[in-house]
Each structure stands twice: as C-alpha cells, then as structure tokens.
Design goal:
By secondary structure, this protein is mainly beta. Helices cover 5% and strands 41% of the residues. β9 and β10 form a beta hairpin. It is elongated and about 80 Å long.
C-alpha cells in the first residue's frame, strides 16, 4: 500500500484477545477511519494467524478504529446484531514494533434451556427427601462495584438465583440444599444497572458487560460445600486504546 510517489512505511501489529470458542483464522480485522459512527468498508483488512497475532505494514501515517468480527455468512460485510465482534478505537500507525490487543468475545449471555416439568420434579424431590440425600451449599462472592447477575443450573432441571447487588465486602450466601449432580455457574456484571446483559456497541464505544462463565461445582449427597465465585476483573465499560 502506498500513496503518490512515496512508499508508506508505517505499521501496526498485535493480537486478538479472544474469549470463547472458535478459530482465530475465522476472524476478520478491519481498519476503519477514526471516529466513524457507522461501519462502512474498511481502509485496510487482514486475518489473524492461528495464534491470534496479526501484522500490517506499508501503512500511511494515520489513526484508525479497529474492528474484529466473524463473517459467519461470508458476505464480506459486518452484520451488527448477528455477528459477534470486538473493537479498539483511536490506534495510530507507528514506525516501531509496538503491539496492540483487540478484545473479542464469541460468548453471549443466554439462559440454558429449562424443562419446566423437570424443574418441578427436582424441587419436589428436594422438599420431600431426607437431607442426607442432598448437599448443603453456600457461596462466597467477592466484592464488586457492580450488581452481580448470577445463576447456578444443573443440566436444565435445576436453577438457582444467586443475584446480588454491589458490595464492598465479600458476601456469603445462606446455605441451601441442592440435589446431587454437576452444576454450572453463569451470569454477568450489570455495569449500568439496567438488569439486562448489554452486548458491545460500536456507536456508544462500550464493551460487552463481563460474563461469568466456565465455573462448575459438584454436589454430593450428605456433603457441605462453600463454593467460591470468581468474578471478572474488569469494572470498566469503556474501551480505551
């Protein structure tokens, strides 16, 4: 890439800071004019390597907004609301080898499929069986500046609401009896307090609210367990270059 009789010599490189499933090679990186309210065609584009790294050379001296997304329908455009994405704005090209990290998540907050009849059946079992057949579980939730929207479920037939407000102190929930089995925790930090999970917004320059995922625990009959919860570190809703 060059302009006029001079060869552009600026560069930019880095990696995709990805969470969730999927291959890096399936992602597309666009360089867009800085301050674009809407996403049009890119000035430059590339694809990351298998390890998520990328490098562009022979760029003009300029500042760009970076967009990374998975073009799931192969139409060579970004479909907002359909295709997962991440971005980093206000990145200048450079003559040195400084690197950037573009956040990208393939995850969304979704409730698991729940079987209403199974939920009622398990609830009845917990209410009527001996405590020796159940596990007594409490949770410790670290301090959070934001409300914690959190649930525990077991294969679609048990759902526990562990939501709590912001707190400067570590919280320990009241112990309850759980049916034996393997449970998964899922939720998010409600940064703006609207009670909904907010996906990233290019227009508002806000990242997705941090998800709580990938945490499991097992309940065994006649056991007591104090299960720690790990919250995302980020409390910021703005993406800064």
């Amino acid at each position: 890439w060059s302009t006029g009789s001079f060869i552009d010599s600026m560069q930019v490189g880095g990696h995709i800071d990805k969470t969730g499933k999927g291959a890096f090679e399936d992602l597309t990186i666009w360089l867009l004019p800085e301050g674009s309210d809407t996403v049009g065609l890119p000035k430059f584009s590339t694809t990351p390597g298998k390890d998520g790294s990328f490098y562009l050379s022979y760029l003009p001296k300029d500042t760009f907004d970076f967009l990374v997304f998975e073009d799931i329908n192969f139409n060579k455009i970004w479909d907002d609301g359909v295709e997962t994405f991440g971005f980093l704005k206000g990145i200048p090209t450079s003559s040195d080898s400084s690197l950037i990290a573009i956040p990208y998540s393939a995850e969304r907050f979704e409730f698991p499929n729940l079987d209403t009849a199974a939920l009622d059946s398990v609830a009845n079992f917990v209410d009527t069986t001996s405590s020796e057949n159940l596990g007594l579980i409490s949770f410790t939730i670290p301090p959070s500046a934001d409300s914690v929207i959190l649930y525990a479920h077991r294969a679609g037939d048990v759902l526990f609401d562990l939501c709590t407000g912001a707190s400067k102190d570590t919280l320990k929930t009241e112990a309850h009896y759980y049916a034996p089995g393997k449970y998964e925790l899922f939720g998010y930090l409600d940064l703006n307090g609207n009670g909904l999970w907010d996906s990233p917004s290019w227009t508002l320059n806000t990242s997705a609210e941090p998800l709580i995922s990938g945490q499991t625990f097992e309940v065994k009959a006649n056991w007591e367990l104090e299960q720690p919860i790990i919250l995302p570190n980020s409390k910021e809703d703005k993406i800064e270059p």
